[in-house]
Amino acid sequence: MSILPEDLRFTPSHEWVRVEEDIIVVGITDYAQTLLGELVYVELPDVGDIINQDEDCAVVESVKAASDVYCPVAGEIIEINDDLEDEPNLVNDDPYGNGWLFKLHMDKPEQLDDLMTAEEYQKQVADEAH
Amino acid sequence: MHTGLYDEHLALKGKIVDFHGWSLPLNYGSQIEEHHAVRRKVGMFDVSHMTVIDLHGEKVVAYLRKILSNDISTLTSRRALYSCMLNEHGGVIDDLIVYQFNDHYFRLVVNSATREKDLDWLKKWAVEFSVSVEEAQDKCIIAVQGPEALAIIQSIFSEARTQISELKPFHFIQIKDYFIAQTGYTGEKGVEIIASPAQSIVLWRKLLGAGVQPCGLGARDTLRLEAGLNLYGSDMDDKTSPLTSNLAWTVVFSDDRDFIGKKFLANEKKEGITAKLVGLILNDKGVLRTGQKVVLADGREGMITSGGYSPTLEKGIALARLPLPLTTAHVDIRGSLKSVAIVTPNFVRHGTPVYKPLVL
């Protein structure tokens, strides 16, 4: 498995989070996109939606299956990745970059403490794979 | 279980999954590229998990006219026919292809998930007709499919080039120990080749060398769905009639034979068919999935029996069993109703969209 970006935080359900002051960028991990296979559709929340922590707020659909995306930290959606409408495969090709899903303004930044470090997530993935 | 080509899949880095007890590749990297290879050029599949059964006997014709809903009396030597095998209640035990070698020797290729119940049923009825039912062991089946498939097969079996060029759909030939039939499950031209594992490995490698794309179970499913070819266990099973499964064309009600399930189906026809297997195309972006509920304009409900994403149409497509009469319809996707077009259950053939609207 590829090296994880050290600056990100991770959830047990395979979302990643990049913190930019009181805003977070959210996507799914490289491991998650590999498990899902080629994405053919991404359903994103609407800008302005208020989402709770761990609430399902997006769906990624591959040739194989549909999978929910859970919100890592409570807050308001301020931007979504419109490019995914025509190119859902960006999530496969560049999961930590152009394949981001949405940006959210955090209500409860303290919930970031619930997330895993790259090292902790790496360990979870290693356990799942065996 | 492993097919004789298992090591070839590993060497090609196939993503191996369990399929009814068989370890088979889901894909070799990209399912969508494999799908397009078959629609645009040529691809190959290991379908060795399928069950091959040879039938011998003086009364094998009478036997098959009893147990198959399609009528094999239309066959001659070296020809094949698609048929259902029904129970007494008109339910589909399995769908299969029957091949005629001669009047006393036929071959069936049936599904792998249904192997045991098929063999039990075939043997049960074989007693009355003194037919021997023998499963072919130690064989492989390679399907080579796509617009360039027949040309490649001609070049590989160059000593039989003329014979292969004259091979018609649903005909087969035997070249040395290779059984080559012009059949398939993709909606493209192509062949399915039965041979020993050792010969199949040689053939697989020759095909690979000729540029044929290896394809996994994933592409096999999206190709057959686009072609509107039913999947046993999803689109029909022991409890569904061929008449509500888009398979009425495979049931021959001639007066001179009494096939199993005939009485039930004749009665069903008389009382009026109440459901139909149709095609659906999602109007919005997204994917249709097996098991999703279909809601008609007046509230009556049906169900998606096979759903997925069509790489050719770049849309969500499905086969669905809907109650008659048809109206406009929506599909319940995670609680929201999405509009779908109801079309003929045959989306793509020979690389081209062929579906037509059933409800305007």
Structural overview:
The complex is a heterodimer of chains A (130) and B (360). Chain A has 130 residues and is of the alpha+beta class. Chain A has a single domain (9-108), classed as Beta Barrel (OB fold (Dihydrolipoamide Acetyltransferase, E2P)), CATH 2.40.50.100. Chain A contains 3 helices and 9 strands; from the N terminus they run βββαβββββαβα. Chain A has helices spanning 30-36, 90-93, 118-129; strands at residues 9-10, 15-20, 23-28, 39-43, 50-51, 56-62, 66-70, 75-80, 102-106. Chain A has a 6-stranded antiparallel sheet. Chain A is globular and about 35 Å long. The model of chain A has no long low-confidence stretch (mean pLDDT 94). By secondary structure, chain B is an alpha+beta fold. Chain B folds into 3 domains: 6-48 and 139-226, Probable tRNA modification gtpase trme, domain 1 (Gyrase A, domain 2); 51-117, 2-Layer Sandwich (Alpha-Beta Plaits), CATH 3.30.70.1400; 274-353, Elongation Factor Tu (Ef-tu), domain 3, CATH 2.40.30.110. Chain B is built from 9 helices and 21 strands. Chain B has helices at 6-11, 31-40, 60-67, 115-129, 149-156, 161-165, 197-209, 217-226, 262-271, and strands at residues 16-19, 22-25, 43-46, 51-56, 79-86, 92-102, 105-110, 132-135, 140-145, 172-175, 178-181, 190-195, 213-214, 275-282, 293-296, 301-310, 315-323, 329-333, 336-343, 348-349, 352-353. In chain B, the strands form 5 sheets. In chain B, strands 10-11-12-9-3-13 form a 6-stranded mixed sheet. In chain B, α3 (60-67) crosses α4. The longest helix of chain B is centred in the middle third of the chain and has 15 residues, at 115-129. Chain B is globular.
Q: What tags apply to this protein structure?
A:
heterodimer, A: alpha+beta, OB fold (Dihydrolipoamide Acetyltransferase, E2P), 3 helices, about 20% helix, globular, B: alpha+beta, Gyrase A, domain 2, Elongation Factor Tu (Ef-tu), domain 3, 6-stranded mixed sheet, about 25% helix
